[in-house]
User: Fold this.
Amino acid sequence: MAYEILKKYAPNAAQKLIDEMADGKITQNQLSTISSNLTVEMLKNMNVNIAAGKLQQIANDLYSVLGENYELVGECYAQIQNRIYAAEKLKMQATKAEMSKKRVERIAERLKIATESLAKVIVEKDVSSMSRQAYGDSVKVNTDQASEAGLKTYIVRTLGSGKNCEWCRDLAGKYEYGVDVHSGDDVFRRHDNCNCTVESICDKTVTNVHSKKSYQLSESEVLAFEEQNLKSLTNTRIDDIIEREKRFETLNEKTRDYINNRLETANIEYNEVKLRKEKLSESEIIDMISGGDKTKGSCASVALAYAGQKQGYDVLDFRGGDSMIFFSNKINKVKMFDVVGAKTIEVNSAKTSLTNGKRIIQQLEEGKEYYLSVGRHAAIVRINSGMPQYLELQSPIRNGWKNFGDVGAKLKSRFGCSPSSKYFSAAYATDISQLGNDEFKTILGYINTSSYEQAKGATGYVK
Assistant:
């Protein structure tokens, strides 16, 4: 293929990639760098043409330019993969992925009627995403092929450095391909500015979906990888893994998967939770676990600690760090309640978190305590003599049950709910009396904190 349209929009990078492919020795790192440059160069020239009023021309060229980009990157990937198969003495040939024609057509139709400002957004988001997806799709179809050929294959998604979004944190982990995940699942995808890595591990070959780097695992590394049965490559010792497996062997399968796939991959230290020898009163529990919050915001996890204490579990919080981040994620909490067998009320019928919060409080039953997550806060709540109340646990001096009073006002001031649809979020409430089981007790081990390590005190405050 001459790649004439592609060279029109990205002449330097396209020609560089063509030359490297012709040489037959292109490496994964070269493909990563050049294909990234290709996307950047393409977008730059498209924006220049948009500013020059050549929007219709871009729309007309779009299918060809993306198709050629897809073909060129896919051909380079196949060349590299075939060299890997040959080195591994596998009688297989790489497969080239097919571009989504319908998706390109939809982008082109939007471009034809877009304003200049909207066209730039479409190019920066949709066109960029399609261009960058060429490599990821090649990995997916070849992982499919390897799996169908009987080779055990894993997909490992690892969080990048710096701040990671909720969507990425939820997807991080190791998954057996064809069992836990399949081609087209979210684990392969990345959003704008995403720095996660996704690796496809097949037999002894590791291919990073995003950096395009391939490398070989030794036989001992392959065996260790499979024996650990974790959702990511870690430096955990095998004897620690065996000890943990024994500890968790009585748990239901969904909880074991939740721990291995989510908590372990988040690198959260486990601190075993034991049953209390003596029963504490409610006021004693509140005094024990509450305090001025000196972390970045432990409302979600300290409320779970209270729920555990009510079941007779000796658990403390204010650990902060990765534990706090993990349990502040609504997706992680909803999944947690599900795997431990607790039913959760969900209200998402309204367009604002404020209205969803009001509606879920109306569904709460007198005499029960609920774990409520709505807006930007989580707390234990109840209906007491017809009055909605929430449990404050993060104040340096005034903890305990508080009346909502004006429910809407309190949802806004304490729970961070908004009347704007721009900040929509669902509301979740779980009756904590359902949490008296080994599954929940074990998960609390990823919250449990030694009393001397708690980040709480007089200088902390509600968050």
